[in-house]
Amino acid sequence: MRDEDSMVLLExxxxxAKVAAALRQARHGRGSLLVVQGPLGxxxxxxxxxxxxxxxxxxxxxxxxxGCAAEEGLTFGVLRQLVDSGRCDVTAEPTKARATxxxxxxxxxxxxGPGREVSRxxxxxxxxxxxxxxxxxxxxxxxxxxxxxxHFADTESLRTLAWELTQSHDRRLLCVFSILSGDAxxxxxxxxxxxxxxxxxxxxxxxxxxxxxALITDAFGMAAEQGFVxxxxxxxxxxxxxxxxxxxxxxxxxxxxxxxxxxIVRALRPDYLRRRLAAFLRSxxxxxxxxxxALAVLGRIVDPQVAARLAGLDALRYAEAVHALGLLGxxxxxxTVRAGGTLLWESLVDSIPTAELTAMRSMxxxxxHQAGHPAEVAAEQLMPAPTLNNxxxxxxxxxxxxxxxxxxxxxxxxxxxRQALLDSSSVGxxxxxxxxxxxxxxxxxxxxxxxxxxxxxxxxxxxxRDRAAAVVQLGPLLMEPAEFAIDSLMRDVxxxxxxxxxxxxxxxxxxxxxxxxxxxxxDHNPSHTSEAMRRFKQLxxxxxxxxxxxxxxxASLAHIAFVTNGASADQLAALCTRLLEREPPRPEHVHTTLxxxxxxxxxxxxxxxxxxxLRQARHxxxxxxxAIIRAEQAMLALASGNVADAKxxxxxxxxxxxxxxxxxxxxxxAIFAIVALHSDEPELADEFITLHRxxxxxxxxxxxxxxARGLLAARHREDRRALNxxxxxxxxxxxxxxxxxxxLPWSSCxxxxxxxxxxxxxxxxxxxxxxxxxxxxxxxxxxxxxLVALGRVTPGRKGAELLEEAVSLLERxxxxxxxxxxxxxxxxxxxxxxxxxxxxLKRAYDLGVQCGADWMVQKITAKLQxxxxxxRTAHPRLTRSELRVAQLAAxxxxxxxxxxxLGISSRMTEKHLTQCYRKLGIPGRRGLSAAxxxxxxxxxxxxxxxxxx
Length: 949
Prior knowledge:
5-stranded parallel β-sheet; 50 helices; AAA_16; DNA binding; Tscrpt_reg_LuxR_C
């Protein structure tokens, strides 16, 4: 068997065995009929081609014909092909040849010359010509009669073949006819009669996994990766026609059969396959074509009633069509689920003319909606349309958008609404409503687009109340006031609402929310913050918090009181705690001013319960909501001194802020920079601010940038340059009236640079300024930080006393990082005796490990090692328990595994590890193995000898 035949005959062993058996019988004088059937594209023609090659190799004569739709009406067309092929392929016995000539001569008229030759090929003489060939087969030979696509044969040829088959059982003859299963012509009496005469039937089907793999491997001449093979089979359904079309297309594009190229395979749509399917459908009855088109449009939706209505058929005709499609291999007849692979159905969709397809999709959407299918299922029918002119379709798309928002999928909602905006009938109030709804969906993942669509919708709204309702959907913390003149628009809307004179509850609520948003957007304007502080004082000690508008207003005003240092930490903490107690934890809070209240609580250090509130709010929401909540959680982590956790939260927030989100909003950018500065990574803060929307108009971000660059300059001992950056940062903060040192402790940095430069009076002045402002605010962590700076620039015992005061204050705060810094600086102070210094540094080390401040751990470790070297004290030995924990940790075991192995609590494991790090003078687990090998080898050996482990 040739290689090409082995590929064609993959998984065709049963059919081939039937042919072989029939050929053996034919050689012994027993003729028979084999009918080859199969769905569209299963390789019937290729199977017959392979049979012809096999027969020719074995010396079997062959008559061949090919039915086709174009010649269906040609009288004796198939017979003529058989006769013509017989004149070339069959060698007759001499006696038989003479008999045939005589027979032909008797049945013809007797014209002379060329006229006689023409009459011999006349259609009416084809039956006799075929009979003469069939009778002329030599006794030691057999004859194979192949007719492909018999269902296209003309009636006269079918009748003749039926007659000859009645005589075939005594002939050395094998007839093999192929018929397309499910073709309407196969139900015609002549075809059914021939099928009924078959001695054997071979049914070809789609290739299984092994057959498909063999075909693919042979085509590429190399082993194909499983992912690639699986994708090809999924796309083709194992159908040989579709599979070969895909393979050819892949080879033309020189794509290698690897798993990484599965995406390319999924995108392929061979034009040959589309044309082949279109030609096939044109040859089928109208009701079958309409059913195929309807099912192709509906996709994987199984609803016979909707499909029948879409096809315009009654139940009986639809059932007939489904039966035929099942035979054709396009459907599972029982479930009416599509079969044949995804590419085949995509190609069927592509074969539908564009105008017809658009009309069918519109009708399908309406039918699905009427039948009670989910709105999103119906809406998907409208999504591929390049344009719409269908008010019903717009309603379906809006319903789908509502459904998508309810299930927490704002991107899908926006897709539906954008498609609805393509509808040419959507004008006036309808278009305005679509724009507002789209902005509401987009605010969860594309804040800039949401702003643009609100700005586009505002001029189309007729009342001030409608305009106010549209504007307050957008969170002020996500806005860039300069873009789309949104701050100006908001002022105009607020003025219009006030001018309307309406004082009903909904209007008053909108007015409060607008006021809150305006305060949040204008917090950089000193003249506005003065007005806001007067409004804050008007609210009194117990402002009303019943409505969302009242809570938003308090959040904005509390924020301004915080940044301007116009109220104490205790006062604002009490107000913001009450506020959050009355606000349900929802992700939508990020589109209000409420994150400002969370920020205020973080600055006060009063964060009890806030983390749980945020965790509940984060359960749902889009990328924007989750990014803002991550930033809020980062500020809470910083307030506790957990700088490692804070950094992790901000990195997650940055991942959520992809190109569609247009980067993080200014609030998140500022928080990320603050976290980087607290993590001793000013270069990261510099890079991040530069990357994310820094502009000269955003004074706070500009100040943070100068702070980062000042710290970088100080690290490189460029003291004067660092001082200039810190001063510029302070000028930016003073310009906008942001005086709270929690936001940016620029003055203490100025003090330290003056001190390093020998400018001691200026250093003391700058440090005292920060202490005064910190005491006004009153949060222990902030006052402690300022006192540390003042203690560092104050000479002698007075400096040490200030540091002692700072440590005492920070012991009462929740900020372990600030306490770690203060202990380290006090431990390094010249007035601190050596014994106490060691104790302070060890405590600072433990806190540094706890809060993930690796840079502090390294500095403290270096200081402790220097102190040990100078006093020549012996390296502290690990206890037996500490050594065992250290060994397991060095071997890669987790804390949980160590606790389980040794039967101790997780807390005890952590305590032992912290002691090990301190005693070994290493920052963490990574240096454990080397430290044990270097310094405790003898102790480890002794321990092993004693325990026998």
